[in-house]
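TICKET #2291
ISSUE: user wants both folds in one file
ATTACHMENT 1:
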Amino acid sequence: MQHPAYGALRQVTPYASVLLADNPSPMTLEGTNTWVVRERDAGDCVVIDPGPADAEHLRRVADQGSVSLVLLTHHHGDHTDGVGQFIELTGAPVRALDPALCRGAEAIRDGEIIKAGGVELRAVATAGHTADSVCFVADHDEPAVFTGDSILGRGTTVVAHPDGHLGSYLKSLRLLAALPPGLRVLPGHGPELPDAQAIATAYLQHREQRLDQVRAAVRDLGPAVTPRQVVEVVYADVDRSVWPAAELTVQAQLAYLREQGELRD
């Protein structure tokens, strides 16, 4: 069974399976990936990102067995809107980097080892896409990293100003690029990828290229250029349906250049 597969649990590694929510859009790609994590002989499982408030999807996830813990990669609604309903179905505690998202459990600490479902997950704070983004590294015989929206299965991640912060995101990508080679990427959207180190390095290169394009646009259009004007030049090759998100990304890029002293208001 290959991605995308709606309504069916798809095994990806010996300990990680995915249920794809039927909420496709330009921002969610084919939909939100809800990950079910457990060793084969474990009596419980961990659910990463229950997904949207889709009763059918949430019921399918709950039907996978006893859920001992819910982990959230960040606060966006396509990952978290279903949390309340999912708690009603499972009674599971919810943990996230942001204490405001937690239910019946404490906030995740950067670097913490979380043990549940027979699997050890190491939390890696990866601010940038959002301030509360976190990834989970499965230190296993077949290692992988659950990346939420910090790395997607295809395309690149939106860093939407002001919650998204480009300087933080570049730092987070460097952390992911420093992971050992061969860790599979198990993302919040899109298909899995073979090597987090290689993908994070490619993301860094892409961001630097975009920044160079923004710098050039500012030079050509002047320091009073608007984010929309930059989008029309730098993101001309991108589907116009995502231009509003691109404008937020450009705001983050311009803010970064100001922080670096390269641009003045």
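ATTACHMENT 2:
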Amino acid sequence: MAGYVLRRFLQLIPVFLGATLLLYFLVFSLPGDATAAICGDKGCTPGVEASLRAQYNLDQPFWMQYLLYLKGVLTFDLGTNFAGREISTIIAEVFPTTAKLAVMALVFEAVFGIVFGLFAGLRKGKIFDSTVLVVSLVVISVPIFVLGFLMQFVFGVKLAWTNPTVSGDASFTELLLPAIVLGLVSFAYVLRLTRTSVIENANADYVRTATAKGLSRPRVVTVHILRNSMIPVATFLGADLGALMGGAIVTEGIFNVNGVGNTLYRAVLNGEAPVVVSIVTVLILIFCLANLLVDLLYAWLDPRIRYA
């Protein structure tokens, strides 16, 4: 098992290097000069411009810039933004809010998606199954910003069950509605994926064998059907964690959440390439670690991986 974990961890290194190299190349190959965003329309004097280019390593060739960037990542020195603030400080201020929002959305889509998908799969072709299929299809079809504004208007303005926007404290109750909006589309995918897996495994030979042995229906469902159905669902949830963190831009904009998404959006608008690269690098790390966790879950869900 230890060797399996080590191999999976080592596989993440080239993935991280390749993703960050591509990210760095795409961001810093954009037309224009980063110093123009600092100096404004009037421009800077040649001396100030040369100093800025040296400060942000823009006077170095691309490969040297990338190596210095990797060194900063490994030493937790992400540099400063154009206003002179430490980027690591900026991320530390906004990251907890987005992490809380993404985890709440992940729990919502995982718990409710699996439960509804399980019952729909066990009742294939019945009213409950048909209803959740139609509802999930509607959720997938409607854009997330439409769902966000609609739920904000209904639950935040008309019914006044919660605040329409999130305050600086970002309490659990305030983040509950944005988390549901953020995880709503993924909830529909988890539901349909769980339903399909449950239907497939419910007709497998090992399920009929377990039933013939006299095992109780709850044990057959939980141990044999549900557990084996979780392998594709776990894959989706692991990949979705990084997508939720990055996809929070729209949700955080609708509910005025001071998180990573809003910070990343402002950095793109202001042309602050160091901030953009640093935030996306953190998201890449989260994505890699989430996939490592999924690989470990495989070994628990499927005993054949442990024995292999």
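RESOLUTION: both attachments delivered.
EXTRA DETAIL ON ATTACHMENT 2: The two ends are 9 Å apart (CA to CA).
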